[in-house]
Amino acid sequence: MDMNPNDQEDVIIDDHDDPVTPAAAPRAPRSLPQMMRRIPVTLTLEVGSARISLQELMSIGPSSVVPLDTLAGEPLVIRVNGAPIGRAEVVVAGEQYGLKVIDLDGLDLDAIAP
């Protein structure tokens, strides 16, 4: 997901009609110093990984399938600048993919705020 640092508002997709997933307890708003609010970070959703040999890598082609270490339907890892912070699932948001946060374990912005 490409986040433009020049956007005036953050867009959050929230599906209130999902009867299966209970609503998470609301978190207290986080307060960051004004100068830190515009620092860009890279948010990624990790599908999985595979450990293969160089020989196997050399034989990969357009129709190759490489099994990953994540089971189908299992929550995916959310990473910020490479550090895991929680889990999510992929959703369709209009014409783009998005992520629906399941839980946040490693996101502690309060620790860096004064």
Automatic annotation (TrEMBL):
Keyword Cell membrane: yes
Sorted UniProt keywords: Cell membrane, Cell projection, Chemotaxis, Cilium, Flagellar rotation, Flagellum, Membrane
Acidic residues compositional bias, start-end: 7-17
Name the UniProt record assigns to this protein: Flagellar motor switch protein FliN
Location(s) in or outside the cell: Cell membrane
SUPFAM superfamilies cross-referenced by the UniProt entry: Surface presentation of antigens (SPOA)
Membrane topology, record value: Peripheral membrane protein
Cited InterPro entries: FliN-like_C, FliN/MopA/SpaO, FliN_T3SS_HrcQb, SpoA-like_sf
Primary location recorded for the protein, binned into one broad class: membrane
Start and end residues of each stretch annotated as Disordered: 1-28
Family: Belongs to the FliN/MopA/SpaO family.
Transmembrane segments: none
Residue intervals of the Flagellar motor switch protein FliN-like C-terminal domain: 36-103
Record flagged with keyword Electron transport: no
